[in-house]
Amino acid sequence: MSIGILALQGAFREQSEAVLRCGFKTKEVRKPEDLEDIQGLIVPGGESTTIGKLLTDYKLCKPLIKKIKEGMPVFGICAGMVILAEEIAGQDKAWLGLMKIKVVRNAYGRQIESFETDIEIPALGKPPFHAVFIRAPQVEKIGKNVEVMAVFQGRPVMVRQDNLLATSFHPEITKDDRIHRFFLDMVKNFK
User: Fold this and answer.
1) By three-state DSSP, how is residue 15 classified?
2) 3-state secondary structure of 50
3) Which of 94, 131, 142, 156 is deepest in the core (most CB within 10 A)?
4) Active site residue 170
């Protein structure tokens, strides 16, 4: 089984390392043909506007949307959450627009205001997950069929909708692979 890592910009190497630690192969995705033999995809943190523009420039949006609608699991992390979101505050259009959430980019502040905190994620059990927030988006609104898996300060920071998973924080920075393993289980169950 091969997990695609969107490698246009951002923390794609760290995502690959996390997946490899979990015992799965990875493949960097930069062109539409790179989507052909992957069973799941991680959209890493980075700069969402840059990632979105590169998705468009490299003609990845349509084939990616098609694969997601066919059921391929996708995990959006920080900027990846913004890429998946149906609505982005202050922006006229969404990038992929498949996850029924509205997000606010950089809602927790600038780079210098990055922080770490422990959050409860019931689906992962104990102990709490040590979450690292870096220029993180905030989920302002959730739609039908979106499951809130974790909250921080009363706002969702980990959400799931069918074959889509998204976090506001960066689980790849820690050595706690439980969220990546949760996503990889979603991929294993994908038919």
Assistant:
1) helix
2) helix
3) 131
4) yes
Among 116, 120, 130, 170, the active-site one is 170
- The pLDDT score that the predictor gives to residue 107 is 74
pLDDT tens column, 40-58: 999 998 889 899 999 999 9
CA-angle at 135, arms to 186 and 6, nearest 5°: 40
Structurally, how many domains does the chain consist of? Answer: 1
Enumerate residues 6+ apart whose C-beta is below 8 A from 135. 78, 106, 108, 109, 110, 111, 114
Task: Show Cβ contacts of residue 162 under 8 Å, excluding neighbours closer than 6 positions.
Answer: 71, 145
Active-site annotation holds for 78: yes
- pLDDT digit string, tens, across residues 106-144: 777 667 778 999 999 999 999 999 999 998 999 999 998
As a whole number of angstroms, the distance between CA 54 and CA 58 comes to: 6
Q: ω before 63 within 30° of 0 (cis)?
A: no
- What CATH number should be reported for the domain holding residue 7? 3.40.50.880
> 130, 140, 172, 180: which is the annotated catalytic residue?
172
Q: Which of 78, 86, 113, 130 is catalytic?
A: 78
Tell me if residue 130 is catalytic.
Answer: no
And the tokens for 43?
């959209």
38 is in which domain, residue-wise?
Answer: 2-188
Q: Burial level of 32, CB count in 10 A (0-12/13-18/19+)?
A: middle
